[in-house]
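Worked Example 4.2. Read the sequence first, then its structure tokens.
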Amino acid sequence: MKDKSEIRVKFEIGDIKFEAEGSADLVERERSIFNNTLLPAAVDAIVRTRGVAQNMPYIDVPNLQQPALEATATTLLPEKIVENSVVDWSRTSLASFVKSKGANAHYDFIICAVYFNEKRNGVSSFSSATLKDLYSEAKKPLPNNLSMSLSELVKKGLIMEDISAKGSTPKMYVLTSDGEELIKNMRPTAVKEKKTASKPRKQRVKEKSIYADIDCNKLNLSAYPSIKSLKDFKEKMVLVLYIITNENKGEWFSTDDVLCLLTDIFGESATKDQVNGVFKREKLWFKTEKVDGKFVKRKLLNQGMDFAVSLISK
């Protein structure tokens, strides 16, 4: 028993015969290829072999009366006349057309692919099955949910359900005029050329710390524990800041200032991460202030001072 989802088409134009049987999509595609490619070649061959006048009027295939289908399933859709175009569709692949439009996005590919199929094969209607074939032709992976993609394109107004095939399974769609207009205006994104030679990066001049010229001999260091005798970095750092503050050499310190004091003045090893780590962990020990809206400076508060005094009293 014949599958109800299959249809059969058979017609003759003089000595030229066409017959196809299968699903609606398959029959429609075969008929379109026959009408657009094989039929004109067959007519030309008959003209040459039979000596018919060369100015014989060309048969306008879309106006021919199509025979009734031998099934009650899907009715074949009317075929659009292929518009004149500078594009030689017979020599253009789907992949090259999509690339020429810059259709890298998922939705852009779908509408470009069905537009290409309409222009090359004369098939205006398409379904999810049609799209699967087009994805395969372009060697692109299928999206996770093709039906959802079609629904989104309907919402965007770029495709619509084919009225002449309403109720068919699978559902048939056609491009809207907005969809066609979008494709015609699509252009690949211009790729910026990389500069072969770039300007040398401007080296940032490190500002000299205001504590760079401090003389240790004038700091009364005999009144304090030796910095080198302390093992913990936090203890060394806080005691150095306390000494500078207590000896009235300054009270505000940036990260670079602390590094300068520890490494250049007291000869201790230190990194920015270590300094900023103490500032971050012991927030209550320091008052923070921005100078000129950019450089953060800090000074010891009572809790920080008390910690330094505890080190001296040990």
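Now turn to a second chain, presented in exactly the same format:
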Amino acid sequence: MMNEVLDEVKKDMDKTVSAMKQALQKVRTGRASIGIFDGIMVDYYGTPTPLKQLATLAVPEPRLITIQPWDKGAISAIEKAILKSELGLTPANDGKIIRIPIPPLNEERRRDLVKMVKKMAEDYRVEIRNHRRDGNAMLKDLEKDKEISQDELKLGQDRVQSLTDDHTKQIDALLADKEKEIMEI
């Protein structure tokens, strides 16, 4: 019983770390990354379609992203979707391919991004601690129902705390990497 609780807590914490990785990919830095386009939906003949399903995205240079639609008729819809997104990027197209230059970030914008990323990381740490609380509550319920002993409860709580520490370190490492990436010139 205790192992099932621990497995569930670990699975939930792993999902939280994965969610943070995905959220950080969407944060624009001064470097080109196709991850910033995750979640952009294009109105393709009346159907909201993910951008990645309509075109080939590439990073031929560190500060340039190219988008080559498979259907040339989708170029204007793709451009509109990028302009409507809150990325602050200006696409330029030549009728066949869309080029998006990634401007370097100024110092103030870098600091704002770092603050935003730190707040995101704290939100994910809180989520990890909530999983710890839920896991400990499940263990206490098992002990109350006489399914595990007090010693097993203490052992289980120690393991939940260990999982919490490990996953918090992973979040801190992701934060440090993203901060470093944002502050690079």
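Notes for the reader: The mean pLDDT is 88. The chain has four helices and six strands.
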